Amino acid sequence: MKTVGFRSIVLYILLAVFIGGVGYLVANMFLHGRQWVMQPYNAHLSGQMGDIKDRDGNLLATSQDGGRVYSENDTVRRALLHTIGDTAGFIGTGVQSVMGDKLTGYNFITGLNDTVFSRMGSGLTLTVSQDACTAAYNAMAGRNGAAILYNYENGDILCKVSAPTFDPAFVPEDIETNDAYKGAYLDKPLSASFTPGSIFKIITAAAAMEKWPDSWSERTYECWGAENIGGSDITCLHGEAHGSQDMFAAMGNSCNIYFAHLANDIGGGALQKKAEEMGFNQSFDFNGVNVTKSTLDLTGANANQIGWAAVGQYTVLANPYHMMALMGAVAKDGSYTQPRLTEGGDIFSGLAASGDRKLMSAETARQLKTLLRGDVENYYGDWMFPQGMAVCAKTGTGEVGEGKAPNCWMVGFCDSTQYPYAFAVVVEEGEGGIETAGVLVSAMLQALA
Question: Domains (ranges, CATH) in the chain?
């Protein structure tokens, strides 16, 4: 009897393990089945995918003769590679990977069978503009970098470009060995971070507004082009001496000395706290993809390090998607609408606008808007942009060392009900914020005008 009882216990244990295993498998099939279906080893399924079109109905990708065919225009193919994805599935952030279940008609219940509930080869219309993406790609002029722009009212991503890129219709044979394609599978607007340079002064300014809400605009510092702060020099670009500066002049002149002093008066802890409230060291999600974090760590930083961090150097790294969202928040009273790549969306696609997320107070947003509008009106020039867009922006040059030219940034938004656009652009090894990134922003906005 003891033997029978022991065997019963063993059988019950095995039955419990079996049932638990089946439950685990079913749960994972429900949660991850669509990702499993679109793994690279199922590349043949790409020939069953439906059409992908841009917001204007331009065909970006389709299936033909059991294979994947892309736009007839090679510039469009390159410009939209990281948004659409490649046939092999190496670009994991592309629509063909993230939304492959929608495009193939995969369903948890029916699998890939063609039924009245799930149609094979379903199409998608994206929010992106083919024209804006090609304009941004051409304006990069062969340089590497990232450009992303969205409508901060409804969340539509209108432009997303990453470089280096390649033609998905004719994948280079030396893509794995040629340094020109190093990082070509990386979707930089979502999955990369860069030294931001002076665009971080927006965060430093916001911290000052919070610390001295009634007197921030009255604080002045002297700039002689270079100054020993914390035992080592902090310098302005090209050693230019700006003289006595208030916040408005310092933002327009991009005065490093002013913001280094300002940050030390604010305090490293307060600057860190404000940066995190505005999205640094925080997670963002787009299209079911975890966006690379913008980061800042001022733990144990001395006065010199705090000064350099305040102007976007030291340990500061910024992600383009985050900076775009931050600019959308400045434009929209401190909150931003979740960006999306398709109309509608559902809880599984991660594309639906999910409400607003607060990154700053409405008053701080209003004050920053005034500063950034002054940059364009008084320093950059409205002539750079289409009439009526009322662009508010900040440029930056992030020094990266190793004998390389800087990362050239421009971030901002249009203070316009007709053109509610927020953007972030970074070009690697550029000539300057205005000369390189500003030209790219101008090209995107011209295409959308």
Answer: 197-448 (3.40.710.10)
Q: DSSP characters for 336-371?
A: EEPPBSBSS--TTTT-S---EEE-S-HHHHHHHHHH
Query: Does the pLDDT value for residue 349 go beyond 50?
Result: no
Q: How many H helices and E strands in the chain? A: 15, 17
What is the identity of the amino acid at 111? G
Cα angle for residues 293, 346, 86 (degrees, 5° grid): 60
CA 323 to chain CA centroid, nearest Å:
7
Which residue in 393, 408, 283, 284 sits closest to 338, CA to CA? 284
Amino acid identity for residue 39 in this structure = Q
Cα separation, 413 vs 421, in Å, equals 5
pLDDT tens-digit series, residues 1-51: 556 666 777 777 877 778 777 666 656 545 545 554 555 544 544 556 789
Q: How many CB atoms lie within 10 A of CB 19?
A: 10
pTM: 0.87
By the 8 A CB rule, do 186 and 194 touch?
no
Closest of 344, 191, 210 to residue 276, by C-alpha = 210
CB 94 within 8 Å of CB 85: yes
Contact 394, 202 (CB under 8 A): yes
Other beta carbons within 10 angstroms of residue 414's beta carbon come to 26
